[in-house]
Amino acid sequence: MLQVKNFSCLFLVAMLSFTFGCAATRTQESTGEYIDDTAITTSVKAAIFNDPYLKSAEINVETFKGVVQLTGFVSSKSEINRAVAVSRSVKGVRAVKNSMIVK
Questions:
Q1: What are phi and psi of 57, to 5 degrees?
Q2: Alpha-carbon gap, residue 27 to 12, rounded angstroms
Q3: pTM of this prediction?
Q4: Where in the chain are the domains?
Q5: In CATH, what class is 30-102?
Q6: N or C: less crowded end of the chain, CB within 10 Å?
Q7: Each residue of 42-87: pLDDT tens digit?
Protein backbone atom coordinates (compact mmCIF):
# COMPACT_ATOMS: atom_id res chain seq x y z
CA MET A 1 0.00 0.00 0.00
CA LEU A 2 2.89 2.35 0.78
CA GLN A 3 4.37 1.71 -2.68
CA VAL A 4 1.09 2.65 -4.37
CA LYS A 5 0.89 5.85 -2.34
CA ASN A 6 4.52 6.76 -3.17
CA PHE A 7 3.96 5.99 -6.85
CA SER A 8 0.80 8.12 -6.91
CA CYS A 9 2.62 11.02 -5.32
CA LEU A 10 5.56 10.69 -7.73
CA PHE A 11 3.18 10.46 -10.69
CA LEU A 12 1.33 13.60 -9.55
CA VAL A 13 4.58 15.56 -9.19
CA ALA A 14 5.72 14.42 -12.63
CA MET A 15 2.43 15.43 -14.26
CA LEU A 16 2.43 18.84 -12.60
CA SER A 17 6.04 19.42 -13.67
CA PHE A 18 5.19 18.43 -17.23
CA THR A 19 2.08 20.59 -17.33
CA PHE A 20 3.65 23.71 -15.90
CA GLY A 21 6.97 23.11 -17.63
CA CYS A 22 5.29 23.57 -21.02
CA ALA A 23 3.27 26.63 -20.04
CA ALA A 24 4.08 29.97 -21.60
CA THR A 25 5.23 33.01 -19.66
CA ARG A 26 5.73 36.60 -20.74
CA THR A 27 9.37 35.93 -21.64
CA GLN A 28 9.09 32.30 -22.68
CA GLU A 29 7.05 30.51 -25.35
CA SER A 30 5.10 27.32 -25.00
CA THR A 31 5.92 24.46 -27.35
CA GLY A 32 2.89 25.24 -29.51
CA GLU A 33 3.80 28.92 -29.75
CA TYR A 34 7.35 28.02 -30.71
CA ILE A 35 6.09 25.82 -33.54
CA ASP A 36 3.67 28.54 -34.70
CA ASP A 37 6.44 31.15 -34.62
CA THR A 38 8.74 28.88 -36.63
CA ALA A 39 6.03 28.53 -39.28
CA ILE A 40 5.48 32.30 -39.33
CA THR A 41 9.22 32.94 -39.68
CA THR A 42 9.44 30.50 -42.58
CA SER A 43 6.42 32.08 -44.30
CA VAL A 44 7.78 35.62 -43.89
CA LYS A 45 11.21 34.60 -45.22
CA ALA A 46 9.55 32.94 -48.23
CA ALA A 47 7.37 35.98 -48.89
CA ILE A 48 10.38 38.31 -48.75
CA PHE A 49 12.45 36.00 -50.95
CA ASN A 50 9.67 35.68 -53.53
CA ASP A 51 9.16 39.43 -53.75
CA PRO A 52 11.13 40.57 -56.82
CA TYR A 53 11.84 43.96 -55.25
CA LEU A 54 13.47 42.46 -52.13
CA LYS A 55 15.49 39.52 -53.50
CA SER A 56 18.86 41.23 -53.11
CA ALA A 57 18.17 42.54 -49.61
CA GLU A 58 19.93 41.09 -46.56
CA ILE A 59 16.95 40.73 -44.24
CA ASN A 60 16.87 38.50 -41.16
CA VAL A 61 13.55 37.41 -39.66
CA GLU A 62 12.81 36.36 -36.07
CA THR A 63 9.40 35.74 -34.50
CA PHE A 64 8.34 35.70 -30.85
CA LYS A 65 4.69 35.17 -29.93
CA GLY A 66 3.53 36.29 -33.39
CA VAL A 67 5.61 39.48 -33.41
CA VAL A 68 8.06 39.52 -36.31
CA GLN A 69 11.33 41.39 -35.99
CA LEU A 70 13.14 42.36 -39.18
CA THR A 71 16.86 43.12 -39.01
CA GLY A 72 19.60 43.50 -41.57
CA PHE A 73 20.58 45.82 -44.38
CA VAL A 74 18.65 47.15 -47.36
CA SER A 75 19.44 49.66 -50.08
CA SER A 76 16.64 52.16 -49.50
CA LYS A 77 13.83 53.28 -47.25
CA SER A 78 11.34 52.00 -49.82
CA GLU A 79 12.78 48.48 -49.39
CA ILE A 80 12.21 48.76 -45.64
CA ASN A 81 8.60 49.80 -46.22
CA ARG A 82 8.11 46.97 -48.71
CA ALA A 83 9.59 44.34 -46.35
CA VAL A 84 7.36 45.52 -43.50
CA ALA A 85 4.28 45.43 -45.75
CA VAL A 86 5.11 41.95 -47.07
CA SER A 87 5.67 40.70 -43.50
CA ARG A 88 2.36 42.12 -42.27
CA SER A 89 0.52 40.31 -45.07
CA VAL A 90 1.59 36.88 -43.79
CA LYS A 91 -1.08 34.97 -41.88
CA GLY A 92 -0.40 34.79 -38.13
CA VAL A 93 1.72 37.94 -37.89
CA ARG A 94 0.45 40.10 -35.03
CA ALA A 95 2.94 42.95 -35.41
CA VAL A 96 6.20 43.81 -37.16
CA LYS A 97 9.19 45.46 -35.47
CA ASN A 98 11.53 47.11 -37.93
CA SER A 99 15.23 47.17 -37.03
CA MET A 100 16.58 47.28 -40.60
CA ILE A 101 19.28 49.72 -41.65
CA VAL A 102 19.76 51.45 -45.00
CA LYS A 103 23.31 50.85 -46.19
A1: -75, 150
A2: 27
A3: 0.72
A4: 30-102
A5: alpha beta
A6: N
A7: 999 999 999 999 876 799 999 999 999 999 999 999 999 999 999 9
